[in-house]
Amino acid sequence: MIRALYTAASGMSAQQSNLDTVANNLANSGTAGFRRRRMQFEDMIYQNLITPGAAQSQQTVSAGLQIGLGTRSAATEMIMTQGDFNQTGNPLDLAIQGQGFFQVSLPDGTIAYTRAGSFHQDNQGAIVTMEGDRLLPAVTIPANSTSITISQYGVVTANLPGQTTPSQLGVIQLATFSNPGGLNSIGGNLFQQTASSGNAITDVPGGTSGIGTLQEGYLENSNVDVVAEFVQMILAQRAYESNSKVMHVADDMYQQINGMIR
Fold it and tell me: pLDDT by residue (tens digit) across 235-261?
């Protein structure tokens, strides 16, 4: 019975982590470029009362007698499916049709990656994120420029006074990873590469690497399916209640044994 108490407690703890993940997904259902996460579990070590394959006689072997000791949260898998596009009409709002990421420079000089393409200009004309982190490679738009256009291949052009044709101001590059699910979320819609994700592979949009193309005047919505998350929330709640019931039953059985001893 004592073993059942700890096993059920591990299940309750795992489902609490599961519910935390669902809550975070729902909280970010309106966050541009957000990638939902899914909790993954694994069973814990087993107690071998009889080792599987142990000889019972000269002719037979045992199927084993193993008692599981519960579960634990193993990982949160980031789901990389494409979110829907929302038209904004802002020429500096960009959505990626594909698996690429925008590259931005953080204040400490490190590079971060994002799917949230809500950009604007800072006081020097550089294209930056909502937090003021500069897009890489850096693109600066002159103050007197008009009719800013960003093509699906990342070419930034604008009309300048005294010129009859648009001037090219720069080219936006995207990054992709061998395992984008291994990126480290650092908040602010930003990710950083890890040993699990592999090194960034950069290319221009529409390149041969299949990195994707840009859609000007659009933002990518979160890929959270609210209905599916509510289903997961109900399942987590039911699993939590079931483990709680096991604890009550194990406690009742333990009390009966204590009563027999008295």
Answer: 999 999 999 999 999 888 878 877 776
